[in-house]
Amino acid sequence: MGRRERVRQKTQKHKQIKKLAKKLKPGGAWAASAAAAAVSRGKCLRFTPNERILVLGDGDLSFSAGLAEHVNNAEQVTATTFDAAKTTEEKYGAAFLHNAQRVRERGGSVLHGVDARRLQRTLRAAVARHQLPTKHAGPFDAVVFNFPHTGKQRSHLNKSLVANLVEDVPNVLATNGRMCVTIKLAPPYDRWDVPSMETDAMAFVRRLDFDSSVFPGYRHVTTEKGAKPLMKNAQKANNVAAPSTAATLALRKEESKCKTFVFQLRTSGAAAASAGGEEEMERREEQEEEQDPEKTRQRQDTQAALAALGWTL
């Protein structure tokens, strides 16, 4: 590298530092964003220690661990992942193991193999497999699903994931219970029109800001390992022990596009809950089992565990 190039790079670096300082000073762009975020935090998703909470699709369990710290008592928290424990560990490694420990240390429970598209059925099966008290199958005061995604870049499948949950969630909610779904208002997610998914049993009631700092240690992780991150600044801020002020503010700015949509159980409409295509899924599973004896054995074991609890699959 020649002298002229070194001088050019040094000059460019000084310009970047000056530009950053301008943004961070009172009244600067990032300072304004941080102030706006601070003001909006009163309208963010929050929970109380006495609420019974079910967390769905929590990847590395960092949200559930942060939630346990947020409420300071996780005895009422049931954290779940879509994948089996072994697969989840392969995807997220030590972070998953650490977060699972954080949840359990505060009294919470962790379940694997829970599918939001067939919530009541797979939740009961998971409770039976893990030999946990039946309270972990509901009813819940709140069901939370952050950034739902099937792992496939097919918008209609991901939209259907949320729609199916809205249909089935009344089966596990307590009277006046609520469901909270957080998405990023950017293509293609902003085209899902989540509020329009309300049903006879579930009413859309409000939209809240999302602030990850409410849940210490939370970070967004992708459904499939190595997939493109939803929030690149989140990855940068979370990959270091102590992110810089600039990185934190950039994350807050990016999170301002994330909103939580809250649905509440209509007391009079609880009986109108529908399984939403579950019969078709059952037929497909039966066809798969005919070709895979191991799946048949697993299903029989699950049925036996459920029967011991007085449930049916």
From TrEMBL:
Domain of life, per lineage: Eukaryota
SUPFAM superfamilies named in the record: S-adenosyl-L-methionine-dependent methyltransferases
CDD domains cross-referenced by the UniProt entry? AdoMet_MTases
Any one Gene Ontology cellular component term annotated for this protein: cytoplasm
Q: Which residues form the signal peptide?
A: none
To which species is this protein native? Pycnococcus provasolii
- Name the record gives this protein: 25S rRNA (uridine-N(3))-methyltransferase BMT5-like domain-containing protein
Q: Which Pfam families match?
A: BMT5-like (PF10354)
InterPro entries (UniProt xref): BMT5-like (IPR019446), SAM-dependent_MTases_sf (IPR029063)
The entry lists its GO molecular-function terms as: rRNA (uridine-N3-)-methyltransferase activity
Segments of this protein annotated with the region Disordered: 271-313
Q: Please list the residue ranges annotated as the 25S rRNA (uridine-N(3))-methyltransferase BMT5-like domain.
A: 54-221
